[in-house]
Amino acid sequence: xxxxxxxxxxxxxxxxxxxxxxxxxxxxxxxxxxxxxxxxxxxxxxxxxxxxxxxxxxxxxxxxxxxxxxxxxxxxxxxxxxxxxxxxxxxxxxxxxxxxxxxxxxxxx
Amino acid sequence: xxxxxxxxxxxxxxxxxxxxxxxxxxxxxxxxxxxxxxxxxxxxxxxxxxxxxxxxxxxxxxxxxxxxxxxxxxxxxxxxxxxxxxxxxxxxxxxxxxxxxxxxxxxxxxxxxxxx
Lengths: 109, 116
What we know:
The complex is a heterodimer. By secondary structure, chain A is mainly beta. Chain A has strands at 4-6, 11-14, 19-25, 33-38, 45-50, 54-57, 60-65, 70-75, 84-92, 96-97, 103-108. In chain A, the strands form two sheets. In chain A, strands 2, 4, 5, 9, 10 and 11 form a six-stranded mixed sheet that branches. In chain A, strands 1-3-8-7-6 form a five-stranded antiparallel sheet, with no helix packed on it. Chain B is an all-beta fold. Chain B has strands at 5-7, 10-13, 19-24, 31-37, 43-50, 53-57, 65-68, 75-79, 88-95, 106-107, 111-115.
């Protein structure tokens, strides 16, 4: 099983709509989880951390399900500027992040 | 806002040559990392560095690679005898503490290495 699995998409989302996607991870010992946003040929930028049962930041909500070993990201009221690839990154051990291939989101006017 | 800076932004080198990629982590951060991303693929961990020594490395980080913190601000990745398959975007990152304990890692803008 891969360390991190994400459906690459693309997820074509009408502007103003809600989109959600999951990421599954294989290492049950992971304690910290992060969502990063990556624009084409740019660096990953931290979107939000996901601790315990999850958290919310504006239009973005992240949830963690330890029993099933997945984290989710929900984007409400999608904006054109939300078009990007969203990378799931559980922390493995104390010193590294394992990245998935990402969920590509395309917000359509 | 503090940020991780990397130089150069783009490096072209001939196969077999050595390259040094440079990074200035965020000043109060203690953990430093190198990741790479081959075009169209996922971001891959190379190495983490703490307290002036490597704390973890991946299978990719073989004898061809080395890291160094030559002074109080710079963190470098040296790639010896470059191969075509070393062509990738190399990202430096830093965090206050180890990412496993919670603090987030912040990434530099990357160095695009092209081996010809």
